[in-house]
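Hey, I was hoping to borrow your eyes for a little while. I've dropped the whole record in just underneath, so have a look:

——
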Amino acid sequence: MMRAIPCLMVSDIASALPFYKEILGFVNVSKPDKSLANICRTPSGKPMLQGAEEGVQLYLRTPYPPPQPQDPPFPPMSVHVEVANVDDMFDEIYYRAQRTHPSEDDYFPAFQFGKARIHGRPQNTSFGTREIRINDADANLLVFFQDIRAAPQASNSNIVRGPVERKVKRR
């Protein structure tokens, strides 16, 4: 077996964990300390047990040694996570966000939580994915995506589906 566990640098574990757990639905794999949190997100919502369940595992880590005021800030990192249905994932995140940070406006809901930000609803890309982009408070980027190129095609041969999901009649 081979696997990778991405590590995202955060300025403070205690400040970062609530966003990952309350909004994004991650759970602790082990007890976090002030320099490291081992978290995961699985379909069951329970911690991963040595690859027994599919999901994504992340390390949140503070810089070591601690940065000095004259040091440049650590660069943000990115993680891309493939999911079965990105729209369902967005609905779950939106529900969690509304539960913890209620918004009066359903048309323009709040997608900003302190410095953390959800970049709107899922969007189709020109390279065949549908994704939501999320920055944590330390500007790390999490992209949850679904490959829409592999989606079943319509049985009507006059319809062509593209990344924008529009219907076009062939002549």
Remarks:
- The chain has a mean pLDDT of 81.
- Strands lie at 7-9, 27-28, 36-41, 56-61, 78-82, 112-113, 116-118, 123-124, 129-135, 141-147.
